[in-house]
Specification:
Layout lengths: L6 H15 L4 E2 L4 E2 L5 H16 L3 H14 L4 H13 L3 H13 L11 H14 L3 H14 L4 H13 L3 H14 L4 H13 L3 H26 L22 E5 L1 H4 L7 E9 L2 E9 L4 E7 L2 E8 L2 E9 L12 E3 L8 E4 L10 E8 L2 E6 L8 E3 L8 E8 L2 E9 L2
Antiparallel strand pairs: 1-2, 3-12, 4-5, 4-11, 5-10, 6-7, 6-9, 7-8, 8-15, 11-12, 13-14, 14-15
Helix pairs in contact: 1-2, 1-4, 2-3, 3-4, 4-5, 4-6, 5-6, 6-7, 7-8, 8-9, 8-10, 9-10, 10-11
C-alpha cells in the first residue's frame, strides 16, 4: 500500500510555497513588481492560512485561502496551497481544479517558472491516488524539470515507480532525494521498502532505523507545534524548530547553473586539517561524474560537476586562495582507493586547529559540512564575504588559518 501523506508532509510543502509567495510576484528580469493594491493583504492571508494548516487547523486555513482568493482569484500560491489542503481532506476533484487553474494561466509566476513545479506536483498526486501511474510520473517529472531539488517530487515519483515494480528507477529517485535532504525520514522508509523487495535485508534494516529516528523527532515536533496558542495574527511566521543533531551546514546555490547540470553532477570531498597541513580525498562522484584537481605552490583547487555546471573549491592559506597554476587539471579517482592530496601551509610545530569537513556539490548547489562543530572563533563563514557568488570559510586561529572558498568555475 502507498504511504499516505501526513499533515506534517503537507505542512513542509505549504511552508515552501509560503516562502516563495513572500517574494512579490515580479518580472525578475526587468525588476518590475505589480501585485495590485491589495498585494500585502493577500500575501498575509495566504501566509496565515499556511500557519493554521501547520497547527492542524484546516478549517481556519481554508477560510484564509478562500479570503485571499476572493480578493485576487488568480493568486496562484493560494490556489496551490488550497489544492494541497483539499488533498489532505480527500477531495481530489477540487484539488485538481485548483492545480489546473494555475497550469492553465498564461503566466501565474512572472519571471519564475520554478513555482509551476508545485502545481505539476499536486496534479501528479491526484493522478497517483487514482492509480494513473504514467500520468503521475509525467507530472512529477515536469515538476522536477522546473525545480531540480524538489525532494517531495523525487520521493513521490520513487513511490509511484515502486508501485509499478520499477525498483531500480525508484531507488535512483530516493537516492537523489537524500542527496538534497539527508534527514528526510520518509525517503529512508521508502528506500527500506525497495531494499526489502530487492532482497537486501541488512540495508533495509539500517534505513528503517533511520526512518524511525526521524519519525520520532517529527512526532515530537508536531506535539510541540500543536500545543501553541492557536490564535495567530495575520503577520505571524512559523518556525519549525531544530532537527535531530547534525553537523552545521553552510550552502550556496547557483540557480543559473542548474539547467546545465547532468544527473552525475554530484561529488563529495573529504577535508582534514591539522598540524599545519590540509589533506583532501575525493570521496564520491556519481557514475559518470568527474572530479578534477590541480596543486600549486600556494594550495589546492578542485572542479566538481560537468561541462556547463562546474563548481570550484579552493584551499589556501588565510585569506589568500591558491594562485593560478599553469599545471593542467588532473582527473582524480573516486573509487575504492581514491588519491589523497596533501598540502602543508604552516610549520607542524604551530598549534593549528584540527578539523574534519565535507564538501558536497550537486546540481548547481554546494555546501560545506563542519563535522566537528568548530566554534565561531575557529570557523568564520563569509566574514568578510569576498563577493556575492563566493562563499568563504576561514578555519583555525589567527596565525594558522586555512581558507576554503566555493565559487562557480571561471
Amino acid at each position: 500500500m502507498p504511504i499516505p501523506s501526513s499533515w506534517r508532509r503537507t505542512q513542509a510543502l505549504l511552508l515552501s510555497i509560503a516562502a516563495a509567495a513572500s517574494t512579490p510576484t515580479a518580472d525578475r528580469a526587468s525588476g518590475q513588481v505589480d501585485m495590485g493594491p491589495h498585494a500585502s493583504e493577500v500575501a498575509a492571508l495566504h501566509r496565515r492560512g499556511v500557519n493554521y494548516q501547520s497547527l492542524g487547523e484546516h478549517d481556519l486555513a481554508f477560510a484564509d485561502f478562500d479570503a485571499a482568493l476572493r480578493i485576487d482569484p488568480g493568486f496562484a500560491y493560494a490556489l496551490i496551497s488550497r489544492g494541497h489542503l483539499f488533498l489532505v481532506k480527500g477531495d481530489e476533484k477540487r484539488a485538481l481544479r485548483d492545480f489546473e487553474t494555475v497550469l492553465r494561466a498564461a503566466d501565474p509566476f512572472p519571471g519564475d517558472r520554478g513555482n509551476h513545479a508545485y502545481a505539476y506536483y499536486g496534479r501528479g498526486l491526484v493522478a497517483r491516488r487514482r492509480k494513473a501511474y504514467d500520468q503521475a510520473i509525467a507530472d512529477f517529472s515536469e515538476a522536477l524539470q522546473r525545480h531540480r531539488m524538489f525532494v517531495a517530487a523525487f520521493v513521490d515519483r520513487a513511490e509511484t515507480l515502486f508501485e509499478q515494480g520499477k525498483l531500480a528507477a525508484a531507488l535512483v529517485d530516493v537516492d537523489r532525494a537524500l542527496w538534497v535532504h539527508p534527514q528526510y525520514g520518509l525517503a529512508y522508509r521508502i528506500r527500506a521498502r525497495i531494499y526489502r523487495a530487492q532482497g537486501r535485508p541488512l540495508e533495509a534494516a539500517a534505513d528503517e532505523m533511520q526512518a524511525r529516528l526521524f519519525a520520532a523527532f517529527e512526532e515530537t515536533r508536531g506535539l510541540l507545534v500543536r500545543s501553541r496558542d492557536k490564535t495567530i495574527p495575520v503577520a505571524d511566521t512559523f518556525s519549525s524548530g531544530p532537527g535531530p543533531s547534525s553537523p552545521p551546514r553552510y550552502g550556496i546555490d547557483y540557480p543559473g547553473l542548474r539547467q546545465s547540470c547532468a544527473d552525475d553532477a554530484r561529488q563529495v570531498l573529504f577535508v582534514s586539517m591539522g598540524a599545519g597541513s590540509v589533506a583532501v580525498r575525493p570521496a564520491y562522484a556519481a557514475a559518470g561524474g568527474k572530479i578534477y584537481a590541480v596543486q600549486s605552490v600556494s594550495g589546492l583547487t578542485f572542479l566538481l560537476g560537468n561541462d556547463g555546471c562546474r563548481i570550484k573549491v579552493t584551499v589556501g592559506k588565510g585569506d589568500r586562495p591558491p594562485a593560478q597554476s599553469n599545471a593542467d587539471l588532473v582527473l582524480v579517482g573516486h573509487n575504492a582507493e581514491p588519491p589523497l592530496l596533501e598540502h602543508r601551509f604552516y610549520d607542524p610545530s604551530q598549534a593549528c586547529v584540527a578539523a574534519t569537513l565535507r564538501v558536497r556539490a550537486f546540481w548547481g548547489y554546494a555546501e560545506l559540512i563542519d563535522e566537528l562543530r568548530l566554534s565561531p572563533n575557529q570557523h568564520r563563514w563569509n566574514n568578510p564575504r569576498p563577493s556575492p557568488e563566493v562563499t568563504s570559510h576561514r578555519l583555525g586561529d589567527e596565525g594558522c588559518e586555512i581558507e576554503i572558498r566555493i565559487s562557480k568555475a571561471d
